[in-house]
């Protein structure tokens, strides 16, 4: 089907500056790690573990390709658009352990509106990397502000970090909340309050 002339589509493939994954080298590294941890990587139960681990990390670190589709805001819609509870799965860059949770992503439309599924795609684009939650939150907000040019953007991420729940303090169930705001959602108190209220948080 031909794409409408008034629809803007930008293909997204790889995050700039992110190197390709060397699977054979990753497998060797996992085998070396097993040996360093006192395990035999050639034993019957661990023989295929290096491949499995390398493939798992490659999957968790590779965002899926998607087309960023935007549409003219012909109706002049000027109220908040919010996608709540977008699943977030990423890897803590300090311990290489997962952190998981949800993102709430909203924006006040300018001249264009965004296909709703693309809000989740943008979250995944940056989540599939070695991350800290603060940077991930800001990257999603900055990217939407730069590519969509809305009147305002708000991103909140709530996540549990296995580097806190499985080791160290072992604070199982503890969730970290981060936010990043642009434009009207940052500068206008009532818009800011509306955004946080709709996410279920208090400003």
From TrEMBL:
Provide any one GO MF term from the record: GTP binding
Q: What is its EC number?
A: 3.5.4.16
Q: Which PROSITE patterns match?
A: GTP_CYCLOHYDROL_1_1
Q: Keyword Translocase: yes or no?
A: no
Residues folding into a coiled coil are: none
Catalysed reaction(s) here are: GTP + H2O = 7,8-dihydroneopterin 3'-triphosphate + formate + H(+)
Q: Which UniProt keywords apply?
A: GTP-binding, Hydrolase, Metal-binding, Nucleotide-binding, One-carbon metabolism, Zinc
Query: What's an example GO cellular component term for this entry?
Result: cytoplasm
Q: Where does Zn(2+) bind?
A: 92, 95, 163
Sequence ranges assigned to domain GTP cyclohydrolase I in this UniProt record: 27-198
According to its UniProt entry, the protein's GO biological process terms are: one-carbon metabolic process; tetrahydrobiopterin biosynthetic process; tetrahydrofolate biosynthetic process
Pathway connected to this protein: Cofactor biosynthesis; 7,8-dihydroneopterin triphosphate biosynthesis; 7,8-dihydroneopterin triphosphate from GTP: step 1/1
Report the Pfam families cross-referenced here. Answer: GTP_cyclohydroI
Instruction: Indicate the family of this protein.
Output: Belongs to the GTP cyclohydrolase I family.
Concerning HAMAP family, the annotation shows: FolE
Enumerate the NCBIfam families for this protein.
folE, PRK09347.1-2, PRK09347.1-3
Quaternary structure and interacting proteins, as annotated: Homopolymer.
Q: What is this protein called?
A: GTP cyclohydrolase 1
Organism this protein belongs to: Kribbella pittospori
Which gene name does the record give? folE
